[in-house]
Amino acid sequence: MEIITFVIIALVVVFALMLCFCLAVASFSFDNYYEKLKEIDQKRNSLGVSTLEYVTELNKNHFDGKLQIARCAEFYDNYSHGRVALSDKTMASNSLASLAIVSHELGHAKQDLTSDKLTKHWRLIKIGRICGYFFMPIMLAGVIVSVLNLLSVLQGLVFLILGIALMAVAFLIFLFACVLKHKEIKIEKEASNFAIEYLNDFLMPPEVEVCKDFLKSAELTYWASLFRTMFSWTLLTRKCPMFR
Ligand SMILES: [Zn+2]
After folding, report:
1. Residue 68: phi, psi to the nearest 5?
2. How far apart are CA 136 and CA 133, in angstroms?
3. DSSP H or E run through 31
4. Which residues constitute the domain of residue 110?
5. CA-CA 20 to 30 A from 150: which of 26, 53, 164, 175?
């Protein structure tokens, strides 16, 4: 067998294995996350504090009371620009799930108040969303020009270069989306590490372990999101926004 054939076969096998692994992670991670969420939502924290009391205490101890605590709709708990928004249900809850989720949001608050990485990331996501609108039209235009050039309908070097250039621009947008998703994983991981520090101040070690395990399952969903974006072109992954 010629060496080149061997290399091509090896590359195809490696790609197929990678694709299988990534698809498996993508489909497992979300189910796993919701299962874990359901499980630890049943577990009450040993101190019996509500999430609102917990956040208020952390706000006082770690943020000099500077964080604004606001209300939001159920399932939309979030942190944004110095404001932690919690649903009524989360505020009243004393489950380990609520404490873990809120601690993670406070982890983002710490990132925001101690560095500009969150602001920079949000800015890049905004730019990415605009680029995302152009991805499909540019890719399609590139493919159409290239095909017409191959069929000699559009003749000349200029159309060959134009087709390749359009596809290259679309590829760069795709690469930008993958890089941002990878950066997001690092940001989420750091927020969860801060969350574990906060939880350690309040909870018993076995409770912290349960929260850690839950936060890890949340982290896996971000990997799944990256894999879905990376392999979206194979049409084998569930649709996932390129930039969110
Ligand atoms: Zn997060």
Report:
1. -90, 135
2. 7
3. helix 3-41
4. 31-133+172-234
5. 175
Confirm whether pTM is higher than 0.70. Answer: yes
How many domains, the chain?
A: 1
Q: How far apart are the CA of 190 and the centre of ligand 1, in A? A: 9
Residue 150 lies in a domain: no
Q: How far is the CA of 9 from the centre of ligand 1 (A)?
A: 40
Cα–ligand 1 centroid distance for 145 (angstroms): 41
Please tell me the distance between residue 223's alpha carbon and the centre of ligand 1 in angstroms: 13
Is 122 among the domain residues? Answer: yes
Residue range 117-139, pLDDT digits in tens: 899 999 999 999 999 899 999 99
Share of the chain above pLDDT 90, in %: 63
Neighbours of ion ligand 1 (CB under 5 A): 188
**Mean pLDDT score, 19-26:** 80
What separation in Å is there between the alpha carbon of 120 and the centre of ligand 1? 15
- The identity of residue 109, as a single letter, is A
